[in-house]
Amino acid sequence: MAHTYYDRLSAMDAMFLELEDAQTHMHIGSVGLYELGPLRKPDGGLDFERVRDFTESQLHKHPRFRQRIEWIPTFDRPVWVDDANFNLIYHLRHTSLPRPGDERQLKRLVGRILSQKLDAGKPLWEIWVIEGVEGDRFAVLSKLHHCLADGVASTDLLNMLMGTDPNYQPDPPSHPWKPRQAPAGRRLMLDEALRQAGAPLKLLRGSAESAGKPSGQVLDRAIEALRGAVHAAETGLHPASQTPLNAELGPHRRFDWTKFDLAEIRRVGKSAGGTINDASLAIVAGAVRRYLLDRAGAVDDLEFRVAVPVNMRTSDDDGRMGNRASSIIVTLPLAEKEPQGRLARIVEITRDLKHSGESQAVDLLGRFADFLPPGVMAQFSRFGTQSAVNMVVTNVAGPSVPVYLLGAHMLATYPVVPLMPRQALGIAMISYNDVFCWGFNSDWDAVPDLHDFVEEVTREYEAILKLGN
């Protein structure tokens, strides 16, 4: 009998599949801007064939790029199987702006591409190589379904195409890729039935393994998670305020970006006894306050909450695909009229949340959801996003040194966070070398003035820089 292969999605990975519909596009990604440099052809265009050949030579490092979703009959659970019809050219796409293409045109194109759902019948990723950007540059837009990777894992994935050595030449794979045969539906059903039958024993075994640790450590973790679950439940029972940034989503997207000095953001956060993330949230709070004052008239009584993903990866998770993130919910201090007051309050709030156990509770829910009926995590997420949270604000640590694609220097990279139900704006940030890059994803109709919001962020950045001097 031929050897077969499949890999089961975790409940958290599957959640992002179940959340997707015609208006909710669950792909993450980034827009990287590069110097054309060594990828310039004699006619001035971009050498896409080199990029294609290089990408093909690197795919063996991450087999997930050649896998698609299959569903287990009856149980309705997703698994990864090799795609026997994989075609790189479908996923690696080449296009151009009308020269000289400015950043406004590039942003419009990116928004249009982000408005298109990934094909669920194929491996769930696309990379668009976009030439013709003014300033002798080109862009690389990546789209990866959130079920495939979280923000941290997606950064690791894209690193397979980039490196710190501009002269790097990859070694070809040791043997040609051959898809492994997927199991028949009956085999998948039997395996899932056996897995579910053994779930109680697995939970007991996990408890026994925990019991082997110092009893105080196990008890402290359990108490911390319970405290966090109570805190999260109390937050969810009190809906966030509805604002112009919370509306039914349409199918179209706008995308914008900006960047700031990384050292300055770090300095401001440290001056208040906080972090880069605290300074960033204070900037978001100030921008939201300014934006809503113009559109809602009053903000002092608003309960405006943002979900802030928390990386839960350990050293054992290095290089692994999928999602290993939790989140905390931060209420932005919109009533604070001055930047200093907003930053101080943010530092206080996040310090308390770090000790609340909220992120641990959400992480444990994700682990236990693997043994619960399908869709539990998706229902939990829908409830939270539509009721308890106004916006997602995420921050990922990127490369601390310059990186290159076939010798072409990456100048900046702007991350993409998907919009959750009734959240018309999402903000993602990534540190890269000496800059702090911000990406803004929004619904086309609900936030027609996205650029105005980005300008508010810039004004708040300039105001907050005066602190800590």
The shape is globular
CATH class of the largest domain: Alpha Beta
**Major sheet description:** 6 strands, mixed
Supply the helix-strand structural class. Answer: alpha+beta
| Portion of residues within helices | 25-40%
What is the count of β-strands? 15
Give the CATH topology of the largest domain.
Chloramphenicol Acetyltransferase
Radius of gyration: 23 Å
Poorly predicted sequence stretches spanning 5 or more consecutive residues: 207-212, 215-219, 221-226
Beta-strand percentage range? 15-25%
- Terminal Cα span: 71 Å
CATH architecture title of the largest domain: 2-Layer Sandwich
Q: CATH homologous superfamily name of the largest domain? A: Nonribosomal peptide synthetase, condensation domain
Q: Please tell me the overall pLDDT.
A: 86
* Total DSSP helices: 14
